[in-house]
Design goal:
alpha+beta, 2 helices, 27% helix
Length: 78
């Protein structure tokens, strides 16, 4: 995991660091947010941010080479 300064300066890092930073920002803005993991097999999992807004759950998946953005939790395919 890299510090937020690295992420901001280089705009590149692993999904876990991006998710940690996203959760930090959302929690500072008083949203309920947590990390969720998508098993990829073997040693690695993909990490995304699950957050709630207006009573609905959303997944923010920006830690990929081609970010998916924000999707309703129900539309996520795991």
């Amino acid at each position: 995991i890299v510090p937020p300064q690295y992420l901001i300066k280089h705009n590149v890092c692993a999904c876990e660091s991006i998710t940690d930073f996203t959760i930090y920002c959302l929690q500072k803005a008083c949203y309920r947010a947590q990390a969720i993991r998508q098993p990829l097999g073997g040693y690695w999992d993909h990490v995304m941010c699950l957050f709630e807004m207006n009573g609905k759950k959303y997944v923010m998946d920006n830690g990929r080479p081609y970010p998916k953005g924000i999707l309703p939790f129900e539309e996520m395919k795991f």
